[in-house]
Specification:
The longest helix is centred in the C-terminal third of the chain and has 34 residues. The chain has about 650 residues and is an alpha+beta fold. The chain has 26 helices and 16 strands. Strands 1-2-3-4-5 form a five-stranded antiparallel β-sheet. A five-stranded mixed β-sheet has the order 13-12-14-15-16. It has a four-stranded antiparallel β-sheet with strand order 6-9-10-11, covered by helices on one side.
């Protein structure tokens, strides 16, 4: 049985190769591909690779490769028609019945590709000819080189009513085919069908295989009703299921280019010309779930780049609502918001590729945009308004179908609310906090928060003495670790009794360095399993593979002025310093999050209120290290050196 190519394409579009292959092969992620052991040969090292972007698999041990149909045929030992029928059922498609009508319909469908390609070539020729001078001038003004115009097959449609129709008719194309391809306007009250696109710059729209399926036209005259006009829906063109430049972006994204979604055709072309080849755009509509699915096949976190005005922000918010039910591990979005009044084309022309790269590097995650949207009014002065914000965030999280991800979003929202409102935030809003490692979670269950241990995110900090603030331990980048992380770890290593008393606060810490987090978790586990003295704790940590890190920390502790981290210091003194260091650490982490949010808000809307907020947060960060107070005023405690030391 012969299957129409369009039917086979539909199956491949609905079934990623990795989904079909993993029924037989255990796959693990390897960059943008998947890898596993060959199903055809016995091997210990994976040589079987799957590439969803290329819709193909490769087995280097046997030299075999192919698509999903080939895989089912070779692993299940079935014929091609049987493989197609099996995969069609998996894709939810009914196999087409062989008939003269079906064959005629498929032949007509293939003929439409030829008609549209002829039209694209005609428009290109008109752009290059004498009639296209005005269109060429416009494209030159937009900074699009002749090479770029040729690469994207840009063209020009004449202002005459029948120019394209007569050209195609002369090549034997019937009017019915032109109407079916969306090239002519027709109707009961229209005696003679005429060209849909007139006096417009033409942008061919291609499917994922690079075949022309439709056109977008940009009017050159100022008094036309529609500045941009797209082809109507046809048997080849479904605008909610395609992306402009998808066929080029697929390859570029696979080769590690950043996948960027913009709003217009010219924006896509300008970015590609500036060195961002994995740029795509929806086709005159808001982003759809089908288009999101296409994006996630190319990249786990595509960046949606919107114009820097209120309309652009609303488009970003619409994209959030559309995407929430479909996000999950490996499927999310990031958002880059341009300066007010600029689109990607403007930015590239004024600031070059570097300006665009800077915007993309600051792309915000989805959770940040949700928080910004829900809090942009900034007025939460009453319990009712705070409760309304909490309720809205809970409703947003409910839209996420993936249960694990929904739990983490609830935890993220709760933490943000707690930071904004302090103890006023409800304790039962979702999980208390996203767990940070098995050891941290187990210690929360094993040890309740001891009396006197502060919730540092909500309470004011004890002041930090000048000697502690000026210590090398509180300067950035000590021995490859955050300075505060090094200080906290030293205090715990030299005073193991502090671990149990401050277990929950320690387990809640967000460490920037992975090795610091690992050592923290190990110390919590070791101290929870048995009462260890300093030497036993150190020996156990060294046995766990932390010897190099311990050597770095001991070198810092040897500094003469660091009396409070040494084993000889009185534990009450060390505990006071730990309390202050934890406070400082929490305040700094919270302020850095606020700083990111403030920077994003200023990019979205450059006004005095957002600028004041940003400036205030920066000043608070600068003031952290210089806060006056208490370490120098302890009094005479056992084990504390005299002031002359």
């Amino acid at each position: 049985m012969r299957f129409p190519p369009s039917f086979l394409d539909d199956i491949k579009a609905r079934l990623p190769v990795s989904e079909v292959v993993r029924r037989r092969v255990k796959l693990t992620k390897a960059g943008r591909e998947w890898k596993g052991l060959s199903p055809f040969n016995t091997e210990k090292t994976p040589s079987f690779f799957v590439n969803d972007q290329k819709m193909a698999w490769f087995d280097f041990s046997s030299g075999k490769n192919g698509n999903i149909f080939d895989f089912v045929m070779q692993t299940d030992g079935v014929s091609f028609p049987e493989a197609v029928e099996r995969l069609a059922r998996d894709a939810g498609l009914a196999a087409p019945q062989r008939s003269h009508e079906a064959e005629a319909e498929e032949k007509a469908r293939l003929g439409l590709y030829e008609v549209l390609d002829l039209a694209a070539s005609y428009f290109q020729a008109e752009l290059a000819g004498r009639s296209g001078a005005k269109a060429r001038a416009y494209l030159a003004e937009r900074g699009l080189s002749p090479e770029t115009q040729a690469r994207f097959r840009l063209g020009y449609s004449l202002g005459e009513k029948y120019a394209l129709r007569d050209h195609l008719a002369a090549k034997g194309v019937p009017a019915a085919a032109m109407i079916e391809a969306g090239l002519l306007i027709h109707g009961e009250e229209i005696a003679v069908p005429y060209d849909r696109f007139r006096d417009r710059i033409m942008f061919p729209i291609c499917d994922r295989s690079g075949r022309v399926v439709a056109f977008g036209g940009r009017a050159l005259a100022k008094d036309v009703p529609a500045k941009y006009l797209n082809s109507p829906e046809t048997s080849l063109f479904h605008k909610g299921s395609l992306l402009y430049n998808h066929h080029n972006a697929r390859k570029a994204a696979h080769e590690s280019a950043t996948l960027v979604v913009v709003e217009g055709y010219v924006d896509v072309i300008a970015l590609a010309q500036a060195g961002f080849p994995a740029a795509v755009a929806p086709l005159g509509t808001a982003l759809t779930p089908d288009q999101c699915a296409l994006l996630w096949k190319m990249a786990e976190e595509p960046i949606l780049c919107f114009d820097g005005d209120k309309a652009g922000r609303k488009a970003a918010y619409r994209a959030i609502d559309m995407a929430l039910p479909f996000i999950g591990p490996g499927r999310s979005l990031r958002f880059a918001l341009l300066p007010d009044g600029q689109d990607p084309d403007d930015l590239v022309r004024s600031g070059g590729a570097a300006a665009m790269a800077a915007i993309l590097s600051r792309a915000a995650p989805l959770a940040e945009l949700i928080w910004l949207r829900e809090t942009e009014t900034g007025v939460f002065t009453t319990p009712e308004r705070r409760a309304a914000l909490e309720r809205r965030l809970a409703e947003v999280a409910l839209e996420i179908k993936d249960e694990t991800l929904r739990r983490y979003y609830n935890a993220d929202f709760k933490e943000r609310l707690f930071k904004l409102f302090g103890r006023g935030a409800q304790a039962n809003y979702g999980p208390r906090r996203a767990e940070r490692g098995s050891a941290a979670a187990s210690q929360r269950r094993r040890w309740p928060n001891p009396a006197g241990a502060r919730d540092f995110a909500a309470q004011g900090a004890p002041a930090i003495s000048p000697s502690l603030a000026n210590s090398p331990l509180l300067r950035p980048g000590v021995a490859g670790l955050s300075s505060r992380e090094a200080l906290i770890l030293l205090l715990l290593l030299n005073h193991p009794g502090l671990i149990e008393r401050w277990a929950e606060a320690i387990a809640d810490l967000e460490f920037a360095a992975k090795e610091a987090s690992r050592l923290r978790d190990a110390l919590l586990d070791l101290a929870g399993a048995a009462a260890l003295d300093r030497e036993s704790l150190k020996a156990a940590a060294e046995a766990g593979g932390f010897a190099p890190l311990l050597q770095k920390l001991e070198a810092l502790a040897a500094h003469g002025s660091h009396w409070y981290v040494k084993a000889e210091a009185a534990e009450p003194d060390a505990e006071k310093v730990l309390e202050q260091a934890l406070t400082l650490h929490h305040r700094a982490r919270a302020l850095h999050r606020e700083l990111q949010s403030a920077e994003l808000a200023l990019v979205m809307e450059a006004n005095e209120a957002n600028l004041r907020r940003l400036t205030d947060i920066r000043e608070q960060l600068l003031a952290l290290g210089g806060t006056e107070a208490a370490v120098d005023g302890f009094g005479a405690l056992p084990g504390r050196p005299s002031r002359g030391v």
